[in-house]
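hi!! sorry for the late reply, been swamped w classes. u asked for the two structures so here they r. pasted raw, havent cleaned anything up. first the sequence of the first protein and right below it the tokens
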Amino acid sequence: MRTPGLAFFGPMSPFTGGLPRARALLAERFGHPVFRAHQVRVLGPLLAGQSVLAVLPTGAGKSLCYQLPALMTEGLTLVVSPLISLMQDQVSRLRRRGVAAAYLNSLLTAAERRTILDAALDGSIRLLYCAPERLGSLVRTLRQAGGSVSLLAVDEAHCIVEWGNEFRPVYRQLGKYRYLLKHPPTLALTGSATPATRAEILRVLRLPEAAVVMTSFDRPNLAFAVERVSDDRNRFARIRRLIRDVPGHTIVYTPTRRLAELVTRALLRMGVRAAPYHAGLCAATRREVLIEFLRDRVPVVVATSAFGMGIDKPDVRQVLHWGTPRTLESYYQEAGRAGRDGAAAQCLILWSPADFAWAECAPEMRAYIARPVCRRRMLLAYFGEAVRHCSGCDRCPRPPSPSAS
């Protein structure tokens, strides 16, 4: 596996101008004066035509790592994205910046999809987001019409391994689709991945020579804790107190849609402005909830695990889990949606041995709940990283509150 570098720009790269042009576009189109160090580490090999697996924390600016290359090639950049709300938001922002972007998903009519496909084929769209369920038909259309893809980006790449929902089969076939697209340079992006998950992403995508770029998984501003509750009444009372006592926005994760609805209704009866979010709601309702949350009109969202991927909400002050997540990987993804602004935030699991999910928990998740050791060290060790000092968990002495960065 090649390590990332900056000195191998070659004739096979579909991108022109390298990092100097990328820096100019960063300022001109996106208003940022400089790159973050990890963005340079991703863009260096990618702009040279090498595929990259980027494991970067929430809020690290991952989307710029494919949006900028899309402006540096005459071909099409194709982004596989699992969340309709995310692709809609990103396309809207890109268009405001003068970037020719569009998306393909189930909300479009057949005529709208045809118009977008025609624009992608004639080169008038530079960046196309595609929902997984639309990928097969898109690849067939591109091949039949002689179209090509200069860059393939796979967002939330951990879904290749982890998610057992309706689009997982498509994620498992991404290597085949990449082959059918004639092996374009590929950028796989995720916020967290164990060594085993990273290896599986590279295997499925058929990227044995990809550069792997990682930063520390540690989020020093997050405090991790677990509380045992006697029953659901006690658990709800605790959640209600936390929402009342902690200023700012809260995400409450529940294991089922039914619980998301029940907890939301109970909060509303208590005078808390809350809204549910899960796959059983229509797309328009989910988008409305997301917009209300982003615009600070709904401070509490009660959701299943689908909520939050890629959502640019920096001031979530707490992430609460009603019951135990299935794996440490999914938990760290969800907990990481707190404190993206760098200010202090808390991540709390409220659990009971009677929870039906307890029997479904992976062993390392049970160990996180039950073992009397530092929770931060256990989380980071799961991702293959050691940490010398804990900046905040209920197993360790509480340090001074982290300041905003």
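now the second protein. again sequence first, tokens right under
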Amino acid sequence: MSQVQKNSIWTVIGASSAGTLIEWYDFYIFGSLATIIASRFFPPGDEVVNLLLTLATFATGFIVRPFGALVFGRIGDLVGRKYTFLVTLLIMGVSTTLIGLLPDYSQIGVFAPILLLLLRLLQGLALGGEYGGAATYVAEHAPDGKRGFYTSFIQTTATLGLFVSLGVILACRTFFGEEAFAEIGWRVPFLLSIVLVAISVVIRRKLHESPVFLEMKASGKASKSPLRDSFLEPENRRLVIIALLGATAGQGVVWYTGQFYALYYLQTVLKVNFVIANQVIAIALLLATPFFIVFGGLSDKIGRKKIMMTGCLVAALSWIPIYKQMAQYSGFLDGTQPQMGMLVFLVWIQVIFVTMVYGPIAAFLVELFPTHIRYTSMSLPYHIGNGVFGGMVPLIGTWMVSKTGDIYSGLYYPIAVALMTFVIGMFFLKENNGLKK
């Protein structure tokens, strides 16, 4: 690869990753502040019920992501990758900023949770269109044999977005103090979004369209109906189903268990202090993030399937022992102070599982589908796997614990899904890491 090409691919990765990181940051501020949002946007009463209502609102953003994948995936395959992920970035930024300006329940009553839900739906639609575009765009610039390595930088953005959201929240809480942060300071992380989005839009506008997409358009091979070609053509429909059940569903639950459910478990089940719980997650995320690139690069050499399936299996077998250790070292079982170092280590292990399943998956999905329907075809299984199967983990887990009283029962759902993906993936997934563009 020439020096010009090297500069080009790193510019593409930098601009694409920056925008995608900001979208993930916007999406996850909501979840990171769920306990505060529960008290601000729902009527006073049962704290557990309000938290469940907040998590249900949070989950709607995940559930609507597949619809965003269909809408913006179609536009991306018809019009282009660059234009589409500029639009999604703007929708996400405006929606997030408006949440920061939204009056709470004490000011406008029932309209507060209704408007919150509508803005959350817009966030989900935007993210549904963003990821597929960014991953496809980077993959279509990457050279053959290096696709796993280069797309793994896009894969770091989801975890880094969560890390940045936690960092901004902790900084604001420290600056405002606990009471002022709960009253007004929580709005600042949402309002900051408009500045970050403006910077990212300026950077992304300087990018050129994907060369693979331009070549396809010039040759007259573009799809006139990406939705029909993606889901009505039998062979491609089969690939979408296999990608969902044999890859992204398990990847989704591993991601959300190891990062988001771990945070809720520390805060709401083990009653670890808000600041300590967020610090534990943030440090673990930062220490584990380089492994997305490690496993993405390794997948170019030994294949995507081996790494992803191993991650699903090891996670499913390890979660209950890990969460029992988290209960012990949190002080929940004996009333002692949390041992922060051990908690960081236990969450870090879970995020390593995340890097195994998530690091190679962008390259895997891009290689699975042909160029003319790639944006549409890869976006749908990705966002159903992550948005529905994965996004429901915090809600189902918290509900299971509240219903059964068993603090480990919230893990049964992600364990079942991860094992399902391992079995289906082992039998039906094929390695495509040697595929040429």
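hope this helps!! also noticed smth abt the second:
Residues 3-428 form a domain with the Growth Hormone; Chain: A; fold (CATH 1.20.1250.20).
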